[in-house]
Amino acid sequence: EVYLEKRTFFVSHYFSIADIAIWSGLAGTGQRWESIRKSNKYPNLVRWYNSISAEYSNPLMEVTALYVGKKGLGKPVAAKSKEVKNVTGDSSDKAKAGSRSSSEIDLPDAEMGKVWLRFAPEPSGFLHIGHAKAALLNQYFAQRYHGEVILRFDDTNPTKESNEFVENLIKDVETLGIKYQKITYTSDYFSKLMALAEKLIKEGKAYVDDTPREQMQKERMDGIESKCRSNSVEENLKLWKEMIAGSERGLQCCLRGKLDMQDPNKSLRDPVYYRCNPVPHHRIGSKYKIYPTYDFACPFVDAEEGITHALRSSEYHDRNAQYHRIQEDMGMRKVHIYEFSRLNMVYTLLSKRKLLWFVQNGKVDGWDDPRFPTVQGIVRRGLKIEALIQFILEQGASKNLNLMEWDKLWTLNKKIIDPVCPRHTAVIEERRLLLTLTNGPDKPFVRIIPRHKKYDGAGEKATTYTKRIWLDYADAECISVDEEVTLMDWGNAIVKEIIKDQDGNITQLVGVLHLEGSVKTTKLKLTWLAETNELVNLSLVEFDYLITKKKVLS
């Protein structure tokens, strides 16, 4: 019961043979399990049982059919019929049901128990669902190979980073259920990175360049070597010390790797290793005036921390050669790179820099705005983390680029919450109207009814019954004179009179209760509210997209 409190499945984040086995044991006890279900002692277990009974009925029905009449088993409780694809067959097929794409892909040269991975966000914003994909895939492969995940903050740009972002990223990672072995920071390795940079200068593998930024970018694009590329080691070391001091001369310079300015892969055309930045670091203050670039720091820290496989989105594909070349020049152990496709959603920006613009310009309430694609935003909007995990793992580590619809994610969410979500009733205040039941109760009375007809764990609610009840105007428009309708959680009624104003708008209805009528014979099933002074005003907020273009180019 406690184990299932925050879980959808028994093993990992998808339906497996473990769920089938436990469901079978419960269903096989027949009425004994039915008694337990109705006792309200195990709401989490009942919620899990109801959920998988609805979603995975086909394989569960097979189990039921297989064991009917076996010794020791009572009359089984059958799952409700619902078509579920790709879940039948042997145990290997069942394991693929929740994560087919992921389970078909192997990490290169991975050894069981020896896989180390890292999730390394930059603390310059909150976690969005694109980061969530990277985090969950790292956890998936760590669990698959009995390995470990390190949570590392790539804090190499003090201009954009803050402790607030670090704290919220940790919060978001824990919301996703990521189990990390430890937290590290790239800034933990700044002194080693500086020493390594100086070593590369002395070996002639790096040089200090004072070329203006725009000119440097053009020269890299055109394959033109910088005038500083032929500087002596002594001149480079002199300028390097100016950079470390943050002097006026040093601020004009950057450190570049001496790779290959004619390589067709432009990422190998002498990338920048270090640049000056006088802004204090959120973690270590003003100790340094220079900071390594991601391209320089990542290959070193990955190797230094014992990472065996670095998962990177395919947008970094052209920089993979650079990553390995820098590791080679450093004399570091080679780390395997495994690519997966970047997550792209319709009408959505998945860039922390661009999302920050919305925050800074007051277009949203904050990083947890329900319209934002951040983990905190979509959770605040009502998404269950189980749905996000299932959505990500169904895509797997595929390299295929897809533009995903939000509808699929919210459909998964509905499947998770629908079997267990308490039901309450509301009517739209504007243009609501009264139905007077002439034979209705003279005095209001209260009846206790379930919040969910099929899930006892949702509890109960008090419903008031009165002679006059509120209906939505849209429902009233569908009713004809003398039509029998069903009032939900009450019974049938016959509408005898529809009163309209001079413009033809319905102003009120008059009818009689017909509680002996069958709900099976009525076309309209109406929600309603009693006319009392105890009704609570609610605000219904409908969220639209923040941007109007379906496909947004980077």
Automatic annotation (TrEMBL):
Name the GO terms of the biological process aspect: glutamyl-tRNA aminoacylation; post-embryonic development; reproductive structure development
Q: Which residue range or ranges hold the Glutamyl/glutaminyl-tRNA synthetase class Ib catalytic domain?
A: 114-418
* InterPro entries in the record: aa-tRNA-synth_I_CS (IPR001412), Gln/Glu-tRNA_Ligase (IPR050132), Glu-tRNA-synth_arc/euk (IPR004526), Glu/Gln-tRNA-synth (IPR000924), Glu/Gln-tRNA-synth_Ib_cat-dom (IPR020058), Glu/Gln-tRNA-synth_Ib_codon-bd (IPR020059), Glutathione-S-Trfase_C_sf (IPR036282), Ribosomal_bL25/Gln-tRNA_synth (IPR011035)
Per the UniProt record, which EC number(s) apply here? 6.1.1.17
Primary location class: cytoplasm
Class in the EC hierarchy, top level: ligase
What's the superkingdom here? Eukaryota
Every copy of the Glutamyl/glutaminyl-tRNA synthetase class Ib anti-codon binding domain together lies at 421-510
- Regions of biased composition (Basic and acidic residues) lie at 84-96
Question: Does the record bear Ligase in its keywords?
Answer: yes
Q: Which GO terms describe its cellular component?
A: cytosol; methionyl glutamyl tRNA synthetase complex
Signal peptide bounds: none
The molecular function terms of the Gene Ontology recorded here are: ATP binding; glutamate-tRNA ligase activity
Q: Where is this region: Disordered?
A: 84-105
Give the SUPFAM superfamilies listed for this entry: GST C-terminal domain-like, Nucleotidylyl transferase, Ribosomal protein L25-like
Reaction catalysed?
tRNA(Glu) + L-glutamate + ATP = L-glutamyl-tRNA(Glu) + AMP + diphosphate
Query: Keywords, A to Z?
Result: Aminoacyl-tRNA synthetase, ATP-binding, Cytoplasm, Ligase, Nucleotide-binding, Protein biosynthesis
Task: Tell me the compartments it is located in.
Answer: Cytoplasm
The family line of this record is: Belongs to the class-I aminoacyl-tRNA synthetase family. Glutamate--tRNA ligase type 2 subfamily.
Q: What is this protein called?
A: glutamate--tRNA ligase
Query: What organism, scientifically named, is this protein from?
Result: Gossypium raimondii (Peruvian cotton)
